[in-house]
Design brief:
With 277 residues, this protein is α+β, with helices and mostly antiparallel strands. The protein is built from six helices and 19 strands. The protein has two domains: 60 residues, no CATH class; 207 residues, Fumarylacetoacetate hydrolase, domain 2 (Alpha-Beta Complex). The strands form three sheets. Strands 1, 2, 3, 4, 5, 6, 7, 8, 11, 12, 14 and 17 form a twelve-stranded mixed sheet that branches. Strands 9-19-18-15-16 form a five-stranded mixed sheet, with no helix packed on it.
C-alpha cells in the first residue's frame, strides 16, 4: 500500500493509490488508529472514496508532516571508506528540524549567502507507526508504518565549521521527503534495497541498504532506549558513498541542477535547485 498527500485547492489531503488513481482518505485522520485499516480497504477496492485524479498528474506534498526527524550519520561501510573516518561504535544520532521538509518537485534553495557547498544524501526513511519506548530489536520493525525516501541535503562548509551538524542539515528546504509512504508488506527486507542519486542525470550515488553498519531494526531499538519515538516520527537511516563533498575535486549542487534520489521498491524523488532570495 502507498500513502500520499495530495495538494488540492483546500489544502493537502491524505490519499492512497489504487490502479494509478489517488483516492482521498477523508474522514479518517492520519493520526487515528483506524487510518491504516481504512486505507487498506480503499486500496483493495473494498471501500469507495473520493477521486483525486491520476497519480501521474497529481501535485504531491511530502507524504507526512513529521513531529520530529531523527537522522543517523556515518552508517554505511562504503561512506566510511570514502570519508576516511573511523566507523562509529554506536549509531551517531542528530536531528533535522521539521521546518526543513519539502515534497516531490519542490525546490531546494542553495543560498550562497549561507553556504557554498550544498550536498546530496539519498537515505531510506522510516516512518514510525506507533509509540516506541525501550523497544527490543526483535520487535522494532513491528512498529513501522512504512518507508519513504529522504534526501539529507547538507551544507558541508557549515557542517564542518560549526563542529556539529544540526544547523547545516536543517536549512529550509534541506529535507525532501516522498513521494509516498510504502507499507512494509511491499518492501520486504529493508536491508536489501538499492539506492541511487542522480544530478542532472549523472549517477552520483549507487549502493544498497545492505551496506548499513546498523540496520533499521537496530537503529529503531537504539533510539527508543534514549527517547520516545511517536507515530509519524521519521528516522533517516544514513547515506552511502558518493556524496559530492568527498569527491576529488569536491562537487556541490547549484541553481539550475535537478537532483533525483531513488530507493528500490519505494520510488523516486525529484527536486530542482534554485538560488536563495
Amino acid at each position: 500500500m502507498r500513502l500520499y498527500r495530495v495538494l488540492t485547492e483546500s489544502g493537502p489531503r491524505p490519499a492512497v493509490s489504487r490502479d494509478g488513481e489517488l483516492l482521498a482518505l477523508d474522514g479518517c485522520p492520519v493520526g487515528a488508529p483506524e487510518f491504516e485499516a481504512a486505507a487498506l480497504e480503499i486500496a483493495s477496492g473494498a471501500r469507495d472514496a473520493p477521486r483525486l485524479g491520476g497519480l501521474d498528474a497529481a501535485r504531491l506534498a511530502a507524504p507526512w508532516a513529521p513531529r520530529q526527524i531523527v537522522a543517523i550519520g556515518l552508517n554505511y561501510h562504503d561512506h566510511i571508506r570514502e570519508t576516511g573516518m573511523d566507523p562509529p561504535e554506536r549509531p551517531l544520532v542528530f536531528a533535522k528540524f521539521p521546518s526543513s521538509v519539502i515534497g516531490p518537485g519542490d525546490e531546494i534553495v542553495a543560498d550562497e549567502g549561507l553556504t557554498q557547498a550544498v550536498d546530496w544524501e539519498v537515505e531510506l526513511g522510516v516512518v514510525v507507526g506507533r509509540t516506541m519506548r525501550a523497544v527490543s530489536e526483535d520487535d522494532a520493525l513491528d512498529h513501522v508504518l512504512g518507508f519513504t525516501i529522504g534526501n539529507d541535503v547538507s551544507a558541508r562548509d557549515v557542517q564542518f565549521s560549526d563542529g556539529q551538524w544540526v544547523r547545516a542539515k536543517s536549512f529550509d528546504t534541506f529535507c525532501p521527503l516522498g513521494p509516498a509512504i510504502v507499507t512494509p508488506d511491499e518492501i520486504g527486507d529493508p536491508q536489501a534495497l538499492a539506492l541511487h542519486t542522480r544530478v542532472n542525470g549523472e549517477v552520483m550515488q549507487e549502493s544498497s541498504t545492505a551496506e548499513m553498519i546498523f540496520g533499521v531494526a537496530e537503529l529503531l531499538a537504539f533510539c527508543s532506549r534514549s527517547f520516545t519515538l511517536e507515530r509519524g516520527d521519521v528516522v533517516l537511516t544514513g547515506t552511502p558513498w558518493g556524496c559530492g563533498g568527498f569527491m576529488d575535486p569536491p562537487r556541490a549542487l547549484h541553481p539550475g541542477d535537478v537532483v533525483e534520489t531513488e530507493v528500490d521498491r519505494v520510488g523516486l524523488l525529484r527536486n530542482p535547485v534554485v538560488a536563495g532570495v
